């Protein structure tokens, strides 16, 4: 028997084993490196935005109007506009999305219609944002006659983010064990009574994580609102849902590409504000999900 | 013996709750069906606005082969989208060159090598990468990447295929990583155990057993990444240089289909030829992404049935 070390024991590592182990360690290192390289930009971007845009962020920046042709001042109308748009989009998409998820999770049979609905949801999520914008223009601005308005823009955003609500809600509904439902049905409860008193209470916080995630997605979108209701600059706040509004995401695009003579720190400040809102929302959603997972009773 | 009528009344249990249940069933069905209505609605409304152009002034050969996109020319407006398609294709290609190896590599690490704790952390970080809005990516391309590329490669303009491709690669990577990781996780553990029992190392198991078994899911991940790349708008608009150009190198500025719509729609009059031409680009984009998503779905469905 060829002795390659280990005192001749049957289980000693052969040269080939050692080579394999070395290869194994090397590949592990390569893949870890790739993963870290992929994640690194998040921190680099944050670091740069904080160092260049951080000094400009203050309460005053949040609560004053842009001035001197948007080369100075704050972002108040844009920040408020983003809040309006996101809120209005939620009003449309959450009820519709939860209803769709309830249908798919609690009612739908495994048939061609359900497959078609699932396919529609996948495609709705995959349609480019600018095509959603064209749809918003064609349908809400022109056909329904809402004009370029908060209403048209938030409806466009709602259609675009609907798949996020549906998918995350369906997941949290399906996480409720089937035995819970069966226990309720066997007591003579109708399907709706079971959903209302058993399924929804046990999944509401899961649905909430999806909604928070949607808020974060909606706040960052630019293309869908460009032509449907967001304006480059408005000297006053919108008075109704039929008015246009400024928005933080479009504001960043405008001051970094369309307005000459903007001091460097200003767009960095707006970018930092936008990314902060989005990352805080995302972290909240992730944290909530983790708390839920650790508390789960079943 | 009681009359038949009262007996059937006794058996009739249609109380308020019964009707409430029926009503809700109808409402949630409407919610589910709305997804189909919306996707058809998108197709209907962009076609409705673009169709006039398709049937009157569209020269199909010019659209697909001519690089001259001159919609605002007074005398002879031409609508050749070839350069725009080349722009979109080159940026997406560049993005995939970066995103495919990195996101598959990351997925392999997260699914096969990482321990449970570091797996959770890495997944959260990938999710945060996905959360960065496209306009912020565009801004990064416009400022940081632009000056970085000018400095490192000593070229006059840093807004080019390389810039937009890098940005787009980073944007597409999270979704590709997530789907690829799901595909690897879906490979049953007894495949791994059988290979490990034969003395294979983790890497050998991954390369010879797990990846071949998950290859359809990995292909779907790549396809969806390509779909992302095709459809991305703001980041590409800001980082690509937005110049109509058939690219000769990665340092050339190009213009993408999506970016063209975003940049020009605001300046066109509703119903004009130019306006309808932009909707035609939208129909083209919609069709391509629809086919990509459909293909990815069919591939994934194939793996699930097995």
How much of the polypeptide of chain A forms β-strand, as a percent range?
Answer: under 5%
Order of helices and strands of chain B: HHHEEHHHHHHHHHH
Largest sheet of chain A: 2 strands, antiparallel
Instruction: Provide a count of the helices of chain B.
Output: 13
Q: By CATH's scheme, which homologous superfamily of the largest domain in chain B applies?
A: MetI-like
Provide the helix percentage of chain B: over 70%
For the record, the CATH architecture of the largest domain in chain A stands as Orthogonal Bundle
Biggest β-sheet: strands ordered side by side in the sheet of chain B = 1-2
Anisotropy-based shape of chain B? flat
User: Total domains of chain B, how many?
Assistant: 2
**CATH T-level topology of the largest domain in chain A:** MetI-like fold
Give a verbal description of the structure:
The complex is a heterodimer of chains A (298) and B (306). Chain A is mainly α. Chain A folds into 2 domains: 14-56; 59-295, MetI-like (MetI-like fold), CATH 1.10.3720.10. Chain A contains 11 helices and 2 strands. Chain A has a two-stranded antiparallel ribbon with strand order 1-2. Chain A is globular, with a radius of gyration of 26 Å. Residues 1-6 of chain A have low confidence and may be disordered. Chain B has 2 domains: 4-56; 81-305, Orthogonal Bundle (MetI-like fold), CATH 1.10.3720. Chain B contains 13 helices and 2 strands, in the order H-H-H-E-E-H-H-H-H-H-H-H-H-H-H. In chain B, a hairpin with a 7-residue loop joins strand 1 and strand 2. The longest helix of chain B is centred in the first third of the chain and has 41 residues, at 16-56. Classes of the chains: A mainly alpha (298), B mainly alpha (306). Chains A and B meet through helix 1, helix 3, helix 4, helix 5 and helix 6 of A and helix 2, helix 4, helix 5, helix 6 and helix 7 of B.
